[in-house]
From TrEMBL:
Belongs to the Fur family. SUPFAM superfamilies: Winged helix' DNA-binding domain (SSF46785). Keywords: Cytoplasm, DNA-binding, Iron, Metal-binding, Repressor, Transcription, Transcription regulation, Zinc. This is Ferric uptake regulation protein. Homodimer. Zn(2+) binds at C107, C110, C147, C150. Binds 1 zinc ion per subunit. The lineage of its organism: Bacteria, Pseudomonadati, Pseudomonadota, Gammaproteobacteria, Chromatiales.
Length: 157
């Protein structure tokens, strides 16, 4: 994903998609769930639950951890966000319209996360699991490295 894009439009598209998906499924995107989703989409970097709690709390109102965790659970169940296991954080899903297995590319310098949904990778993992007699419960593929922007910055430093 290009780091230099209209991020406001990106956020608005994610929220609009979430509204449509939830309406179609007959589930509620409550104001708190929407706020959590919006905060997650503020950047394309993983955000931790306690950072969300801090961002959503104000001087006159503290948001309790269970409230945020319930919202995160809902957003995960609906496929609107991904959990990044290695960072214990969350990022918005680029393809929430249908169930899929994503591969996530995580830049170790800037923290940018981009999503890939290559079915060939999923099939290769399934074939190898079957070959080993392994019952797969989850496929979590997280690739760490340097994004193009950070590589370019390092080359010109």
């Amino acid at each position: 994903m290009d780091h230099e894009h209209n991020h406001d439009a990106c956020i608005e598209q994610a929220l609009s998609s979430a509204d449509e998906i939830c309406a179609r499924r007959g589930v509620r995107l409550t104001p708190m769930r929407r706020k959590v989703l919006e905060r997650i989409w503020q950047s394309h970097e993983a955000i931790k639950a306690y950072d969300l709690i801090g961002q959503l709390s104000s001087a006159d109102r503290t948001v309790k951890p269970p409230t945020v965790y319930r919202a995160l659970d809902f957003l995960l169940e609906q496929g609107l966000i991904h959990r990044i296991e290695s960072l214990n954080g969350f990022v918005g899903c680029d393809r929430p319209q249908k169930a899929h297995q994503s591969q996530l590319f995580i830049c170790r310098d800037c923290g940018h996360v981009s999503e890939c949904g290559d079915e060939g990778i999923r099939r290769a993992l399934d074939r190898e699991a079957a070959r080993q007699g392994f019952h797969t419960e989850a496929r979590i593929v997280e690739v760490r490295g340097l994004c193009a922007r950070c590589q370019d910055r390092a080359a010109h430093a």
